[in-house]
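Support reply, case 0932

Customer input (verbatim):
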Amino acid sequence: MTDVTHDLARQLGRQAEAVCRHYLSAGRRQGHYWQVGDVRNSPGRSMFVRLTDTAKGPAGKWTDAATGEHGDLLDVIRESRGLLNFTDVVAEAQAFLRLPPISPDAEAPHGGKQCSSRDPVISARRLFAAAEPISGTIVEAYLRTRGISALHETGSLRFHPRCFYRPAAHGPIQPLPAMIAAVTDLRGRIMGIHRTWLAPDGSDKAAIATPRRAIGHLLEHAVRFGRVDDVMAAGEGIETILSLRGVLPSLPTAAALSAAHLSAIAFPPGLRRLYIARDTDPAGNRARDSLIARANSTGIEAIVLSPTLGDFNEDLRAFGVDALRAQLRCQLAPEDVARLSVTSP
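Our regenerated output:
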């Protein structure tokens, strides 16, 4: 972190409660902490922001017990406002603090050459490197229980037999089997990972409070399957996206992992048409509308793919491959039906 950003984070920490009331208005104070659903200002109680300096750390530091994400108040400003460029985060922080604008050569954290061993991006890369390919593992078994049998170009997924799970911020650690997904930028660099802890036989997710968690930097990035040319599909969940791949095997896809991250996903160079595999809930509808507006503003055609049930994995499991193929065939642009290997049932 540069001197400028370090100083901004420190000044924000001095006004931690005011920052939380402004940017995390869905939460409320609980003792020495601000409690809210997540860093994107969702209602809930899993994220805690420290409001005063303590022996555990300075004011402004936060942890989301549900996802494992953590950071400072600059991260709160970035995520709650959906800012894509770190210079915009600096400007927003300066405006909140009523500081005169300056023009530092500020870089986002992890943009420089020196990184701490506690850097979440480094931790994510190490965990992914320690995992193994999914072929013949319980990750493959788990996906098949979800009706997903087309596992081509799934190098972004790996299996870890003993991935640590901590049920609470200071609770005991449990080593559990997990599916590890690489979250990458448009250059293919791992910027984070997503963990899905699994039952020992792969029959379902593990019977724990939060079987899905992510670490690292997810904004703009995604779990990617296939190489993008001029057409791709983007959606929220890994299982949703892999369900599409089973019917549209030539369609490159990206799983953004949440509605908020889907709305901010980066567009690859040369992208001409974007299929949005939406989830049918209020958050999915908001992500759809935001992504359509962003795509149209850059000259990209956006086409929404709508499931019958909650998402396309639910449709796949309820109705089968042939029905999902027929359902999607009539939603595609006519020129994509043949090129994406969609055949009649």
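We compared this against your earlier run and they match. Two observations from our side: The first helix runs from residue 3 to 14. Residues 102-117 have pLDDT under 50 and may be disordered. Please reopen the case if you see a mismatch on your end.
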